[in-house]
Amino acid sequence: MAAHNPDVAHRRPMNDQTEATIVAEQLSKTYQMGDMKVEALRGVSFSITHGEMVAIMGPSGSGKSTAMNLLGCLDTPTNGTYKLDGQNVAGLNEDALAAIRLRKIGFVFQAFNLLPRMSALEQVELPLMYAGAPNRRGRALEALESVGLADRVDHSPVELSGGQQQRVAIARALVSEPSLLLADEPTGNLDTRSASEIMDVIDTLNTQRGITTILVTHENEVASRARRIIRFRDGRIEKDEPVQ
Amino acid sequence: MTPTDGLRMALRALIANKLRTALTLLGMVIGVAAVITLMSVGAGVQASIQDEIRSVGTNLLFINPGANRNQFSGLRDRRSSVQTLTAQDAEAIQAADIPGITLVYPQRSINGALLSPDGAVQAQITGATEAYADTRGVNLAEGIFFTRDDVDRNARVIVLGPTLAEDLFPEQRAIGATVRLNNQHFTVIGVIESDGGESFMSRDNAAFIPLSALTTRIRPSKTSTGEDVVSQIVVQLTDEDEATIAAVKQGIETLLLSRHDSDEQDFSIGSQADAIETISEVMGVLTVFLGAVAGISLLVGGIGIMNIMLVSVTERTREIGIRKAIGAKRRDIMSQFMIEAVAVSLGGGVVGALTGTGLSWSLNKLGEAQKAASAASGAGGGPGGPGGPPPGVTSLTTAITAEPIILALTVSIVIGLVFGIYPAARASRLSPIEALRYE
Q1: Contact check, Cβ <8 Å, B433/A113
Q2: Cα angle at B197 between B166 and B188, to 5 degrees?
Q3: For B170-201, what is each residue's pLDDT tens digit?
Q4: How far is B331 from chain A (nearest CA, A)?
């Protein structure tokens, strides 16, 4: 299996600063909840270089989910700028954001978020379908193969284990060759063994393909797979440090 | 996303909820089938009425008393109230030698009780001249129609329709028997062949006597100048082309205007073409009305689609969120749900069109079978034979035309678009974050 490839040990050097994938400056997000204003993010700045693997941690209410929504282009900041691959995302409309998600971002969710009644192959073809890309089938098969699911392509989610479902989700996330992989508690719904396998897959993708990876998690074990941990608290960055 | 992708996604979603899809489809099927069936019934009735009018012969002109045609409906004022046409007018037309005219006859109808030893029947009795038989093509089962001589002598002779003859004389031959009308004895000299009795112009219940006998013996009705009032004069033409009709109309108008010594035209001349046109107009309106009534069920079907699409959007909120996170644009989500709505409405439209066409076809077959049965019983039915449909029940003829089918399919696509757009727009506007959080 790809996940057990000995190359995993070969980490991409940290000081490869050729290009910053993410540059966030003074990002803030305020929600209006009835009469109350909730400041979910209060001016957060950080940058993540190409190929880096970063964990975002923090207790609930710390702003890490808001940060993840902004980084994933699912939402726009109230103030501040967010540059993804050099493009400022802050002022874009919904369809422009969708286009960026389609080309540049792959999501992996805690609840897998596969579509019901669709085979693994069709799930993975979906982003290519929206992109109008050629050779959908071939590319989807390749992606499934790279996560070790070549023999399960015709199975629907109910016929797959949690770990397998998450692999399908990862294949779906990487099939359009994004520059950013956003994994939100990717192992939250998995047992220890599957969790470690999934982390191996993500690790491999990061090291072999150089996909910039952000892990949002509250598990130290998962975070320890990253090279750097950004800790959020009360809408601010509490700590931003490399993993020892 | 290609249209094929959209269609495949829509079909997959529809198949996932088979029962729900089938029920929503049913709403459209009923609507479309109703529109097609009712419109084909309307068109069928129209066609059969037109056929009947044509079967009388399109080379006839009808002169009616009273000039005023109602502008809106094209219908005349009540004829009985206007008494401007006379039997003498008819004689004058015949005598005037207007080129293009072959035969002329006047007629006047009254309602009266015909009595025989075995029965009493209220019937419409038409007084006419012998020219009626040739002009209108009367086939006799027995006996003869009255002659010029009978008309000249004001003879008390009567020709009966077959049903009337059967009702008055169930036990004996009608020919030679006597019926009483207004205490006058009339001898039955002829019985008309049955025409099936289904047409609104059927003569199965008719009775004919010489016009002279009607005006002298039964119910005299004179104008101030002492001429005999008639309700209609019918003119048979040599040709049925427009030029002949126009020339003859012109000739008759000039003649009657001078005879009536009137500045205003106090009569109207109509051709069969006019009658067909009028009936087409009326029936056309009726057919559209029927279609519109059926169209209401189509509207209800459309509301059903909207309802189910709204439910579907709510149910699939999370799916929408996932698709959006992956990179689906608003218009991708929009078209996905629009295609679903149109697939249901068009699917229902197609099934409905097939059902409606099948239904119209069966109605037509049923009508033909009924006609055949009644013709058989009319030919071979002896006295007291109960066979055949009850008189007065007309079999339904339907005409399946392309228009209502095309219309229904177009309308069902439009319904899918109209009732699908709101749910689809709602789906496309969902925020991806909230949609993903939806349980």
Answers
A1: no
A2: 35
A3: 888 889 999 999 989 999 999 999 887 767 77
A4: 9
Q: Do A101 and B16 touch (CB under 8 A)?
A: no
pLDDT value of position B68: 52
- Taking the C-alpha atoms of residue B329 and residue B331, their distance in angstroms, rounded to an integer, is 5
**Of the ranges B312-316, B378-382, B388-392, B394-398, the best mean pLDDT one:** B312-316
> Of the candidates B223, B238, B265, which is a domain's last residue?
B265
Task: Answer for the pair B325, A73: CB distance below 8 angstroms, yes or no.
Answer: no
Do B120 and B33 reside in the same domain of the chain?
no
Q: Last residue of some domain: B232, B265, B298? A: B265
- A113 in reach of chain B (CB within 8 A): yes
Asked if residue B208 is part of any domain, the answer here is yes
Q: Does the distance separating the beta carbons of A132 and B328 come in below 8 Å?
A: no
Q: Are B82 and B67 in contact (CB under 8 A)?
A: no
The residue ranking higher by pLDDT, A213 or B283, is A213
In 3D space, the residue among A8, A1, A7 whose CA is nearest the CA of residue A225 turns out to be A8
Are B44 and B168 contained in the same domain?
Answer: no
Q: Which domains are seen in chain A, by residue range?
A: 2-9+20-242 (3.40.50.300)
Task: Identify whether B166 is part of a domain.
Answer: yes
Residues of B in contact with A95 (CB under 8 A): 329-331
For helices B317-326 and A94-104, what crossing angle results, to 10°? Answer: 70
ipTM of the complex: 0.90
Beta bridge partners, B106, equal: B233
Give the nearest partner residue to A95 out of B1, B5, B329, using CB atoms: B329
A58 vs B: CB within 8 A: no
- Which pLDDT tens digit goes with each residue over A83-106? 999 899 988 999 999 999 999 999
Cα B415 vs. chain centroid, distance in angstroms?
30
Tens of pLDDT, residues B62-109: 888 876 554 444 455 444 456 788 999 999 998 888 888 999 999 999
On whether any CB of chain A is under 8 Å from the CB of B330, the answer is: yes
Who among A116, A118, A130 is closest to B326 (CB)? A130
* Cβ within 8 Å of residue A164, ≥6 positions away: A149, A152, A155
> A interface mutation test: which of B326, B330, B334, B437 has the most A CBs within 10 A?
B326
Contact A64/A40 with Cβ under 8 angstroms?
no
Residues of B in contact with A113 (CB under 8 A): 318, 321-322, 325, 436
Which range of residues forms the domain containing residue B135?
A: 83-265
B393 falls in which pLDDT band (50, 70, 90)? very low
Q: In chain A, what's the furthest Cα-to-Cα distance?
A: 56
End-to-end CA distance of chain A: 28
Close Cβ partners of B282 (under 8 Å, ≥ 6 residues apart): B73
Q: Which alpha helices (H) appear in B18-140, and where do they start and end?
A: 18-56, 87-95, 131-136
pLDDT of residue B44 exceeding 90: no
Section A99-124 average pLDDT: 94
